[in-house]
Amino acid sequence: MRRSGAPRCWERTEFNLEERRYLWLLLLPVALVLAVFLLWPLFLVLWESFFVEGTFSLDNYLSLFVRKLYRESLATSLSLSFLTSFLGVLIGLPISYAVYKSGRAKGFLMALTAIPLTLSGLVVGFAFIVLLGTSGFFTLLLKKWFDINPLEFSAFLFTWRGLVVAYLYFLIPRTILTMVVAWSNADWSLIEAAESLGASRATIARRVLLPMLAPALLSGSSLLFAVSMGAFGTAFALTGTAVKILPMIIYTHVSDMSADIAQADALAVVLTLVTTLVIVGYERFFAVKSPR
Predict the structure, then answer these.
(1) CA angle 109-228-212, nearest 5°?
(2) How much helix, strand and coil, in percent to the nearest 5, is found in the chain?
(3) What angle in degrees, to the nearest 10, is found between the helix axes of 210-230 and 160-185?
(4) Element (H, E) at 103
């Protein structure tokens, strides 16, 4: 009911205030779940990382600079994540365009692409062993057809090269799903206008297409980097602790007989902080460098 003599702007203001109040009430359960299951555990991990045998100390963080194992594992995690992110975008980008242009088959291909994202990292790791291991299906086929040595062929699977191949299995689909949306939202009339003005394909790609796809490429590659940095199950199944990456080092600190939970907490904080800083710096740098 409108109050007699009340201006319409007052009525709209009251309605907006009531709408916002209801919105906050709807968001309250979500905020509560995030606080209990995300913020509180993160706080506990951070708090426990500052204590050594019940005494406040920075030794857990200083050990990252002292122990060679921690430095190497962080460097390996970063290099592996950068490499797999780059390859994931490089391979997934043309495939995403093919899916976008697939017409009626697009929905089926999108659903098929999403299947790897539903699988556990352990399942993916053991699947690669079944397919490409010493007694794997494809390995035995290659032995039969080309007389290869199964041991020599499958040796790569249990090294960092095997992790690259396995990681790409669930990183490329993420690129495809992200970039199909970008292709769908692209303004193709700009490309047609550039062609009508005589622009070359290289100029169109650099001055028109790349700026349109840049936000999706940035967000997609950042997602791939974060997933690679935190991947655990696939590495656990394929290489165990043979390849020193930070998630596996954290695992050893919480699973061995002489567990060091505080040190594992500190490494987890460092992993989270480094991943966040790299993603933020990466997006800001390329956002500035991307052509306008």
Answers:
(1) 55
(2) 80, 0, 15
(3) 150
(4) none
48 in Cβ contact with 262 (< 8 Å): yes
Q: State whether CATH 1.10.3720.10 applies to domain 65-289.
A: yes
CA nearest to 64, candidates 53, 56, 75: 75
Q: Decide if 234 contacts 122 (C-beta within 8 A).
A: yes
Q: Which residue has the tokens 């997609």?
A: 220
CB 63 within 8 A of CB 253: no
Locate 192 and state its tokens.
């047609």
The answer to whether the CB of 95 falls within 8 A of the CB of 177 is: no
Its pTM stands at 0.83
Do 267 and 71 form a contact (C-beta atoms < 8 A)?
no
DSSP 122-181: HHHHHHHHHHHSTT-HHHHHHHHHH---HHHHHGGGGSHHHHHHHHHHHHHHHHHHHHHH
Domain positions in the chain are 1-48, 65-289
- The token duo for 251 is 């695992």
- Residue 140 to residues 126, 159, 214, Cα–Cα distance (Å): 17, 20, 43
The closest alpha carbon to 229, from 246, 217, 205, 251, belongs to 246
CB 137 within 8 A of CB 80: no
Q: What tokens does 166 get?
A: 């396995």
Average pLDDT per consecutive 10 residues, the chain (292 residues; last block may be shorter): 50 57 78 89 91 88 89 94 95 94 90 91 92 90 90 90 94 94 88 86 86 88 92 90 90 79 92 90 69 48
